[in-house]
Amino acid sequence: MTDRITASMISSTTLHSIESSLAQLDHSSEELSSGKSILAPSDNPYGAGRAINLQSSLDGLSSYASNVQEAISWENTASGALSSIGSVVERVREVALQGQSGVDNEGDLQMLASQVEELAESVKQSANIQFGGSYIFSGSLTETAPYETGAEDAYHGNEGTIARAIAPGSTITISMSASTLLGEGGEDGKLLGVMREIASDLREATPASIAALSGAVEGLDTNKEALVSMQAHVGVVINQLQTAEGRIEELSTTTSAMLANTDGTNYAKVAIEYSSQQAGYEAALRAGGSIVQMSLLEFLR
Amino acid sequence: MGIPTLQGLQTALSGLMANQDSLDVTGQNIANAQTPGYSRQTAVLETREPLRISALSPTTGQGAQLGTGVGVETIVRIRDTYLDSEYRTDNSAMGSASTLAETLEQVQSALEEPSSSGLSSQLSSFWSSWNDLADSPTSAAAKEAVVSAGGEVATTVKQLSAQITAAETEVTERYEALMGGSGEVRSDAEQIAQLNGQIKSSEQAGQPPNELLDRRDELIDQLSKLAQVSVSEGEYGVDTISFGGSAEPLIEGSTVNWPPTLSASSGGELGALLNLAGPEGKLAELQEKLNVVAEALTSSVNALQPSVFFSFAAGEAAASLEVSASAEQLRAGSEGEPGANNFALKLAGLRGGEAEQLYTAFVTGIGSDVQTAQASEGNAEAMLSAIAAQRQSVSGVSLDEEMTNLMTFQRGYEASARVLTAMDSLLETLIEHTGTVGL
Fold first, then answer.
1. Model-level pTM?
2. B77 torsion bin: left (phi>0), alpha (psi -120 to 50), beta (else)
3. Does A70 have pLDDT greater than 90?
4. From B394, which residue of chain A is nearest by alpha-carbon distance?
5. Per-residue pLDDT for B57 more than 90?
6. Is the dihedral of CA A88, A91, A93, A99 positive or negative?
7. Is A16 close to B360, i.e. CB distance below 8 A?
8. Given an 8 Å threshold on Cβ–Cβ distance, is A12 in contact with B337?
9. For the segment B155-172, what is each residue's pLDDT rounded down to a tens digit?
10. Which positions 372-411 of B are in contact with A (Cβ < 8 Å)?
11. How far apart are CA A77 and CA A80, in angstroms?
């Protein structure tokens, strides 16, 4: 193609090859130091879009992970409160049976009655448990205690629900209403009602009232079952949350790996490229240095 | 008719002069070896009119012609006009591609994607802040965090929009600077017109104006970077030059038709600038895409919770996006239920939604545009340097060649001088020693 080679051709070709070697070297060194293979969207437009989406998914997963952690703690708190209510129920049952059989001293019965009253208050206290400043048994009225201790047994919460997001488009309800178990005061056959009934039977201390205790103890057993099923529900929710936690962790791992594949630097590959580019750059410099000096002038006398 | 006695001296003298002229041309080439736009020159030698010698042969009675030496016919520059027009076509493509790539790269770098400071990561933080609010629906700190994350999103969108506007202004200003009354196009055109006049008078006087032609070609090369040019040569080397596809030629002889009508398809830097600027331009298109992102973000966020969270001025959504809700106005869930978080949950669920997808498409789009522009810049550069090398191969000065010429002409001069010496000694014999027999 070219038969005459002139001085300015050599200098411009030399300059061009030195410049392009240096540009390649620069890109590789930036890749190595940043750890990213996509330094600008134009390096790989599709990959850049994908990296943005993956990064957002990863951020979302870390949100879900913290939601799940928090929900598990919330449910553990609820579970603890429910088991302390459970032991109170056992205690009430013992007291009622004690009153039913063997104790005929009225003073003792009055004492047993007060004991049941106190236990009822402790059940309310258990239900008033808070997690992170929120009452967990008040439905969605998290700023209101479900029961007022030392007062009427009315339920102050609602039946509203609170959910936590655990995956894209998937939520889990963590709120609970204590009224289904403890009742709203009065003779509704729920736990507080039954306990109040036992207390008043003991306090009345007539043979008829003592006889009525056995019916109340049956009511207690029914509520015990309700309590157990509520505990079971909490257990199921914790289980679901733990499953979700495992899945989120797995997804985070695969998503991070995908992200690294998309925009991460392949160090081994880039390092090898870098050293061969360096060699190329040095060769271009050396060749340029010697060829530009040379001309027929050197050899003429 | 015999041979004039002193003819040999004249012939030797013509050799001396022709070799000296050739040496001068070589000197000129060496001096201009690195001058931009210089085409190597060569002295065209020709034999001089011969002498007729009549009836020299006693047998045939035929005459002969005796050469009378050498003369320099003219000094020409070595130039290939086909390569010139190829070079200019590629130079226009190069001007256009590099301008396009440069401006789009500027917009791309304003995006700062993919990184932890770009809009994508701020949108991500914004969705995360709603998620945190869903976990603590009554927390004033969580509400403040949502408002501040929203504020950062709005600020970044506004900055991006401002950067695109700045690029647009810059492009317009550059176009006006080039095309203005004292801009490069006008001054180059005026100089070419003037050179056309000078070239014409030189050519009419029969002297090839090599230096003027080189300067004119250099100026046309410069113009070709700005927009496509086409050159047609007329009588006495006068060029008519069309510029940027304008119907009326920019330069006709020594007149300049100002201003040329340019369009986005004019090619070169100016064509690319027109392509980028204006209401139909590439930059306006990007601005519009960013507006769509801002609008989608605003409508989705405002629809899923009761406050007017984002607001903007109609028609310039991206440039005027701002957070109009205060932390006190934010509600995580339904009224009267402090623990309710239904709104915040829906907002956190917008992650990966329409606004984000539109933005990702925006980034991918700019990335592809820049990639295409860079690829065509690379192609144009390769073509241009190939054709420039070819042109250099034809017109450039090779010092090795000039050195060889230098030796050749020097030897030629010496040889002619030797002929002169020989002639001189012949004449000496004739003048000094003839007719002195017996003296």
1. 0.82
2. beta
3. yes
4. A4
5. no
6. negative
7. no
8. no
9. 999 999 999 999 999 999
10. 374, 385, 388-390, 392-394, 396-401, 403-404, 407
11. 5
